Amino acid sequence: MLSVVIPALNAAETLPATIVSVRRADEILVADGGSTDATATVAQREGARVWRSPRGRGLQLHAGASAARGDWLLFVHADTILGPQWREAADRHMREHGKKAACLHLRLDSDAWQARLVEIGVALRVRIFGLPYGDQGLLISRELYDRIGGFRPIPLMEDVDLVRRLGRSRIAILAACATTSAERWKRNGWLSRSARNLACLLLFSLGASPRRIARLYG
Predict the structure, then answer these.
(1) What percent helix, strand, coil does the chain show, rounded to 5?
(2) Cα 100 from Cα 94, distance rounded (Å)
(3) Do 72 and 174 meet the contact criterion of CB atoms below 8 Å apart?
(4) For 120-179, what is each residue's pLDDT tens digit?
(5) I want to staple 35 with a disulfide (CB 3.0 to 4.6 A). Which of 29, 39, 161, 197 is the partner?
């Protein structure tokens, strides 16, 4: 059984498309961090189960994983849309690579040439360093997730924290895409946003507090 877990906070606008893209999952669970908009109503209308959680992506991912029924978990952000072949790719991975986790290829919902550069940079980061971020989705067996300790209740970098515990040798790349919002790059500037993301990663690698990094992330 494959459960999709979606952490959400005031995501009523983007959530429907995300849920539609993962309808082929056996279970869809939205971990709502106290939304003040129609997130919970939208999720239920689209056929997802809603689980209330304290605010914070790490907390919500942890709570959602605990509540999910599946023996495989696929974590997807609420502004991400999976490509049509994701289920076939996930089934193949679950059948052939049960001891590994997997991410998808990142795509940004922008036609700007800068978006293609970001995508290339992300692909290199994943292949060379084994560091996918949460907006690429993460497929992992319940057994492996529990063995490495799952998501920790931190306000930022929870995805990097988890994949580091997995290690590069236990992360595969699915033959499917995850298209996510380019809104932060458009709002902050392509170079500025990318530099800020890199600075957050470096600070985390040096042991900086996730709460302090969250202020820089913006």
Answers:
(1) 50, 20, 30
(2) 9
(3) no
(4) 999 999 999 899 999 999 999 999 999 999 999 887 889 999 999 999 999 999 999 999
(5) 39
Helix (H, G, I), strand (E, B) or coil at 151: coil
Q: How many separate domains does the chain show?
A: 1
Taking alpha carbons only, the member of 106, 26, 105, 33 closest to residue 69 is: 26
Q: Do 98 and 191 form a contact (C-beta atoms < 8 A)? A: no
pTM: 0.93
CA distances from 110 to 114, 134, 198 (A): 9, 19, 20
Q: Indicate whether 137 belongs to any domain.
A: yes
Give residue 142's identity as a one-letter amino acid code. Answer: R
Domain CATH number, residue 49: 3.90.550.10
What's the CA gap between 164 and 161, in Å, rounded?
5
- Answer whether 143's CB lies under 8 Å from 71's CB: yes
SS3 105: strand
Nearest Cα to Cα of residue 181 among 143, 138, 215, 135: 135
Domain with 88, as residue range(s), is 2-187
Q: Report which DSSP code applies to 113.
A: H
**What Rg value do the Cα atoms of the chain yield, rounded?**
16
Count of Cβ atoms closer than 10 Å to residue 8 Cβ:
29
Q: Locate tokens 């790349």: which residue? A: 173
